[in-house]
Amino acid sequence: MEWEAPAVVLEARPYGEGGAVISVLTEHHGRFAGLSKGGSSRAQSGLWQPGNLVEVRWVGRLADQLGHLTGEMVHPTAALAMDDPLALALLNSACALATDALPEREPQPRVFAALLPILAHLHAGGAALVDDYIRWEMLLLEALGYGLDLSRCAATGTTEALDWVSPRTGRAVSAEAAAPYKDRLLPLPSFLHGAQAERDPKAWLQGLRLTGHFLARNAFGARHRPVPPARERLEHRVADLAG
């Protein structure tokens, strides 16, 4: 059994003498793990940094075995993001969420495709990518079966002035319908209605708190697991920027 595919490195855990168990995300094989001989050595440690885009080859005697991974560098995302704390926080959060939330060996074409441009442009600075990253978290929730419905108001059916989200149902609520209950609802930043760019850290923070609520309650809380610390560090960094 073997396959080759482009992959995003998610995690590398030392194993044995110089080896490492590598977890990657691919389009058609989803989150997949394999043993890399020498993966924690000086010669290979740079290749298996979380966030790097690599061309991997997996080989195993049986389909359900751990198998062996080898790889070649395509894009050194991790090294290029090192000089920007916000870019590095985005990178670490995305890899941690994908590692801990996605089921093993299930195809993830949309999650993979949406993550690639974020990683490819991190070298230009994290500030230009926070809005796309938050949209990626929404896509991750959808892939896990916890998608938000922001298309119309849950109470009135209107598609206008959708400024709030119910923390219980994940459905949008219009400003008018939300008026008596604002203290119980989550703010919905306008950039999540479409693909428009957003450069306001306060709007970023609203978006992260929105997706973070459902990640904590559904994606992780349902399995009695905490949200990865890397995701919490990202939210704290954005909160500092929002000031």
Automatic annotation (TrEMBL):
Assigned keywords, A-Z: DNA damage, DNA recombination, DNA repair
UniProt feature coiled coil, ranges: none
Family matches, as PANTHER family: DNA REPAIR PROTEIN RECO
Protein family per UniProt: Belongs to the RecO family.
Function noted in UniProt: Involved in DNA repair and RecF pathway recombination.
Domain DNA replication/recombination mediator RecO N-terminal: 1-75
The protein's name: DNA repair protein RecO
Origin: domain of life: Bacteria
InterPro entries in the cross-refs: ARFGAP/RecO (IPR037278), DNA_rep/recomb_RecO_N (IPR022572), NA-bd_OB-fold (IPR012340), RecO (IPR003717), RecO_C (IPR042242)
